[in-house]
Specification:
7-stranded parallel β-sheet, OB fold (Dihydrolipoamide Acetyltransferase, E2P), globular, Rossmann fold, 4 domains, 698 residues, alpha/beta, 6-stranded parallel β-sheet
Length: 698
Amino acid sequence: MKKLRDIPIQFIKGVGPSRKKLFNNLGIENVEDLMYFFPRRYEDRRRISPISMVQTGEYQTVTGKVLAKRSRRSWYTKKHLSEIMVDDGSGRLHCVWFNQPYLEKYFRAGKQIVLYGKADIYKERLQMVSPEWELIDSDTDDQKYSIGCIVPIYPLTRGMTQRYLRKAVRASLDKYLNDLTDALPVWLRNKHHLVNIKRSIASIHMPEDFDIQQKAMSRISFEEFFIFQISVLKRRLSIVMKEGVAHNVNLNLVNAYKNLFPFPLTQAQKKVINEIAGDMQQTVPMLRLLQGDVGCGKTIVALFGCVAAFHNGLQSAIMAPTEILVRQHYDNVTKILQEFKGPEGNSPRVALLISGLPKKERDAVKRKIANKEVDIVIGTHALISEEVNFKNLSFVVIDEQHKFGVKQRALLSRKGLNPDILVMTATPIPRTLSLTLFGDLDVSVINEMPPGRGKVETTLYPQKEAPYVYKQVRNQVRAGKQAFIIYPLVEESDKLDLKAAEGMFKEFQQKIFKDFKIGLVHGQMPRSQVDVVMEQFKGNEIHILVSTTVVEVGVDIPNASVMVIEHAERFGLAQLHQLRGRIGRGKQNGECLLLAEATTEEGQQRLQVILSTSDGFKIAEQDLLIRGPGHYFGRHQHGLNELRFAKPLTQIDILELARQEACDLIHKDPELKEMKHKHFQAIIKERFPSYLESARSG
């Protein structure tokens, strides 16, 4: 039987080569893509309201014939108006659309039209402003699927109508529905009362009622979660089945490390150090996720694993996403460990590996790594290049995991002796997404902040208040403190009416802050230049640092007490929280001053959240609810983009059920060798290839 993904979309009735591009624009290449191209919402047209019975202020669906149309420009607002009058025999409805002159060619007298919108009274007439609309053919078949039923509303591309796309979907179902192969075995469907794939797909595109449609979506979600969790568990199995390094980690070492610091560690830090110590003593590799809020002291905890590896005569590595963060780690680690002595009375040898190093210096570091002349290597993704070879790597830290993907984690792991892996993130992840993204990892949480840290107060100002905000900065700097001023853009744009870092840097130098030393950093500058400026800022040679989000993570300037974020509505919640975390890192309190004009509902929501709490876990949950996980973690993050339909945030019950079934399956048949399980290998290969590859290499 030919697979539906092997049948090009042009072979669907009504498509052909000429309209193939329209479908390609929607990501639809073949018949299977079309069947799994689900509606974004539905309109319940089973209850069509007679125009005479329409209630104002409520969204309703009406249908009737176009009596007349008019296209004109408003003398008052200067906007282009497209108007029609619709009659259904019981009454008349006026509809108006703004600045859409192309509509005139669609609306013709006598045409049947369906409208969905909110009605009101304007100049004693019933009207809808910018309703959704659809023209209906007079033929019985078109009316059958457009009126008197639940109608699917799909995402569209320019040149495609809802009616045309629905016809294409129906044509694919009529011809190919019975060729769909069910990924879920009968015994599993029966166990959880799940409908088969054919009925599910049909019910999603042409639901008899909303209850059936919801059951169909739940079934599709269960399948996605189930297959994905099998891939996650197989990846974990591929690592823990290998023999790792059983480090000798005794209580004396743990206590000696804790006593390195001139301040007491929090109970949460001590707890996680003990968890890491326990993992490192095992013969199977550690796979652990460490999450905690900005400034909670994750680096101190992670560094313990490096010390334990050094104590055992082995190497460790810390990988971070930016050179600024890597240099910060390097400085901190070097400072912390300068007094620590190993069994032979020597301190750990720490090396920095970034692409910004001169080639000669970079090559020298690589040679030292290969010859075991370095104990701890701190670097960017330069660590995973083929030229870097460790002698005996046994412990790996991956910082800011959401900036990397599963493949990078696997590549670094492959360079060692099946090393213990600690993944860190300052982006707190709700349990639902931990199961989805990091289902192959054990989870540790640091939910306490170190005592004595300053508090940061966040205040919102409109853009017109910028002079007052700059005055606040001036007062802080005169008092001996330092300041950040953050912009979303490097250079001014013709398309966006926004201030930009370079332009404002010059204005600050020449006018507003001409009495102070100003620095500028952004992502388009040479790395060497950024490093120089950051060192000057750290040494208080620069009073005010103008920057883009390159300082989002890893910049630790205890004397910085004020941050201005211009056009704050342009930043995501996680970004705003990370940026705000750059101040108040010493004992003094900090001020975060937001200059913003939020014009969208989402922008207003983000600003309300950042003003209402400084709890990173609460902020993360709100950000996920506002934007969704795909945008929150970035497209490269495996486990979110592959889940096309399942929603881990709102379907935790289905996720947990699917995970339990996947655990049971892998426990019984870890290699999926049984005949009834073999097909899962092929499905994983098709749907989650990145996890399969990382499982092989991991």
